[in-house]
Amino acid sequence: MDRRKHYVAGADFGSDSVRVVVMDAADGTQLGSSVSYYPRWKRGLYCDSTKNQFRQHPKDYTESLAEAMVGALSQAKESDPEAGRKLVAFSIDTTGSTPALTDASGHVLAERPEFSDDPDAMFILWKDHTAVKEADRINELSRTWGGVDYTKYSGGVYSAEWFWSKLLHVLQQNEAVRDAAVSAVEHCDWIVGILTGTLALDAIKRSRCAAGHKCLWHAQWNGYPSSEFLDLLDPKLSAIKDTLGTKTYTTDVVAGSMTDEWKRTFGIESDVLVTVGAYDAHIGAVGGDVGEGVMVKSIGTSTCDVIISDETKEPVPGICGQVDGSVVPGYTGYEAGQSSYGDLYAWFRRIIMWPLEQEPDLDKEWLEKFEKSVLRKLEEAAESIPTTVDSPVALDWINGRRTPIANQNLTCAISGLRLGTSAPQLMKTLLEATAFGARAIIECFVDGGVGIDKIIAIGGVARKSRLGMQILADVTGREISVTAGDQSPAIGAAIFAATAAGLYPDIFAAQKALSAGIERIHTPDSQRKAVYDVLYQKYLRLGAFVEKETDSDA
């Protein structure tokens, strides 16, 4: 197929919005891009942060995808009126684990009138931590039941952020939802099924990325955990497992063709292939130039750190998972990450904004402008503050710890505050905390035998926070390369679309042609690194103390 005459599209479903890019398959030129924010999520519906409950309605995804795709394609048609006839392939990524319970037809329960406003019938967002106790049960059973340790390839710990924990929590607290549920689906599989008309339980192609990293799927035990194991948690789980099949698919596989209905909605006049879905950080890693020895850090509200290897290695303790083909077919994909990164800074902003938001007479436009600029102003002031061995130290666990060794019970702590500690100093301390957490992950990989030769940072925080990326370089003692553009996940999706359409022989060839490249490189400062080495040891000691106290309170 002549790639010079064809376009591809990628959609990136993030926590707040969906982003779509339409690209020239020959050279990666972006012909159109558009972002659409989830309307119900934006209003805070179905969420309760006091309970760590974060749910999203399926209509948020379909309505926003339609708006973003129409917007991106309309832009593309401005430069090429034939764009709607030249689009040949489409690929998507989503956050994860973001599961929902379904009926026998594969439709999410919240699509039915009787469950349209029930949060338990909706998609459970990755950062929903209502299932901490259920994750603890899964981990305890894995260690004691006498059979296969199903956490073997998930770093030895199953997370409250993942598929089975969340399903177990909902099934045991909501009888109506339990009675109606027949199966379950990850967001990345559901949206592909919607677009291709293949939602039926025996037709949907389930993502290797999602199943392997979050659903305890592995070829070694021929699929998902055994019915015997799941029955010990809840027999309903084994019934759901039986509907999932045992086969999973890598993202270069074609899931089907886009339905005529969706093509009309988007304004597409050509036949469009749709690939199997995957998670945003894994596809984003491809868009950000992942390779052997190249770790891609997707930095946003949280982080996901992805690296690949063509060697078979023993399971690495403490990471989120290692799965054959989850990132690039033929390679083992390794995943780690932090449950909070940008969310930690956003928390600090909310603390600062609270008294201002209580003043009814303040100009709303001024207030919004101030809110958008406050972190930038704090960073600018923090740049001139010297780092010393007596500086405050904070933990980055404000939303629990994802890796090394997942523990959603953990909380943030700050040590070393004095009367002279200023707001910019505290901002810098939080930036350092997230960098210390990143260093712990890097050391976990290296100790586990996974070499890291290069680090590439993608995502909104990476591009906006120059001080944050410089601190990351100084703390880790490694160069941090930041990608050009902020659409790496959507570009990664387009790379998979172009490969699946036969426009490139493999993912790496498409990656070379379509990725955005590097915008800037942060080089570590050896003097600051020496100071951070001392502070990092304080971070580790503070963390050990907090974790010990947390465990003793459990």
Note down, in words, how this protein is organized.
The chain is of the alpha/beta class. The chain has a domain at 342-484 and 519-553: 2-Layer Sandwich (Nucleotidyltransferase, domain 5), CATH 3.30.420. The chain has helices at 39-42, 58-79, 83-86, 132-144, 163-173, 175-180, 187-196, 208-214, 227-233, 235-241, 260-266, 280-287, 342-357, 364-382, 423-447, 460-464, 466-476, 488-500, 507-514, 526-553; strands at 7-13, 17-24, 30-37, 55-56, 87-94, 99-102, 123-124, 183-186, 254-257, 273-275, 278-279, 294-299, 303-309, 321-324, 332-338, 393-394, 414-415, 454-458, 480-483, 518-522. The strands form 5 sheets. Strands 1, 2, 3, 5, 9, 10 and 11 form a 7-stranded mixed beta sheet that branches. Strands 14-15-13-12-18-19-20 form a 7-stranded mixed beta sheet, with helices on both faces. Strands 4-7 form a two-stranded antiparallel ribbon. Strand 14 and strand 15 form a beta hairpin. It is globular and about 65 Å long. The termini are far apart. The mean pLDDT is 95.
Topology:
Layout: E1 7-13, E2 17-24, E3 30-37, H1 39-42, E4 55-56, H2 58-79, H3 83-86, E5 87-94, E6 99-102, E7 123-124, H4 132-144, H5 163-173, H6 175-180, E8 183-186, H7 187-196, H8 208-214, H9 227-233, H10 235-241, E9 254-257, H11 260-266, E10 273-275, E11 278-279, H12 280-287, E12 294-299, E13 303-309, E14 321-324, E15 332-338, H13 342-357, H14 364-382, E16 393-394, E17 414-415, H15 423-447, E18 454-458, H16 460-464, H17 466-476, E19 480-483, H18 488-500, H19 507-514, E20 518-522, H20 526-553
Parallel strand pairs: 1-5, 5-10, 5-11, 12-18, 18-19
Antiparallel strand pairs: 1-2, 2-3, 4-7, 6-8, 9-10, 12-13, 13-15, 14-15, 16-17, 19-20
Helix pairs in contact: 4-5, 9-10, 12-18, 13-14, 14-15, 15-17, 17-20, 18-19
